[in-house]
Specification:
Elements: H1 16-20, E1 25-29, H2 35-48, E2 53-57, H3 67-82, E3 88-92, H4 110-127, E4 132-136, H5 139-143, H6 149-157, E5 164-168, H7 174-179, E6 182-185
Parallel strand pairs: 1-5, 1-6, 2-3, 2-4, 4-5
């Protein structure tokens, strides 16, 4: 696709504007570093375009603090104070799923929490609450069978409006890869941890 020009244009009856405004399902998978980082970069671009952004982190503890979270929530404050960009929400599995706080028993059941997280996302998709979704590390609940992949794909295929969804994580199910509009696989060539170096602030978090 040189200079952003498609190699071929399908004979589907859509206008250039309609084709440009279609919702995108993106998947960032593979063993290399950078899957979530790339998704958050896309989220920042969406914020700049005035889109309503929501990040849902599966697997990660609600207690972990990452630089992208602080940055995106700062952008949410900028939006609230100046009107620039769009609103941002950030949710993490466990106590970060605010809709589960009344049910402490579910906090220790990661599979149930993941299903509840997906149910809330599906509800928001149906209600068009956001324009850009990052489902960070969502491939793991799918790979482990905590959330039904076929159900997820059906919901995503039927999502109304122009809602973009980016899913990250290793071992993305083949059905998800086949359904996605944009798929990037990160391959690891080298990593500092291979040489015994520990993660660094500003690099890993």
């Amino acid at each position: 696709m040189p200079q952003g020009v498609p190699v071929s244009i399908p004979d589907d009856g859509l206008t250039t504007r309609q084709r440009r405004n279609q919702p995108v399902l993106a998947v960032h998978t593979g063993d290399g570093k950078g899957k979530s980082t790339a998704a958050f970069g896309m989220a920042m671009r969406a914020w700049n375009a005035g889109m309503r952004v929501a990040v849902f982190q599966f697997v990660k503890s609600a207690k972990w603090k990452v630089g992208e979270e602080s940055t995106m929530l700062t952008l949410d404050r900028v939006h609230a104070e100046t009107g620039a960009g769009g609103p941002v929400e950030w949710h993490k599995m466990g106590q970060g799923w605010s809709w589960l706080r009344a049910n402490d028993d579910q906090d220790d059941d990661h599979a149930a929490a993941a299903r509840a997280g997906w149910a809330e996302i599906a509800r928001r998709l149906d209600a068009r609450e956001h324009d850009f979704y990052v489902l960070d590390e969502f491939t793991y609940p799918l790979h482990w069978g905590w959330v039904d992949t076929a159900q997820v794909l059906d919901t995503l295929a039927r999502r109304p409006g122009r809602q973009h969804v980016v899913i990250t994580g290793r071992r993305a199910p083949q059905a998800l890869v086949d359904a996605a509009d944009l798929v990037t696989e990160m391959h690891k060539i080298a990593h500092p941890m291979d040489a015994g170096r520990k993660g660094q602030k500003g690099i890993e978090w």
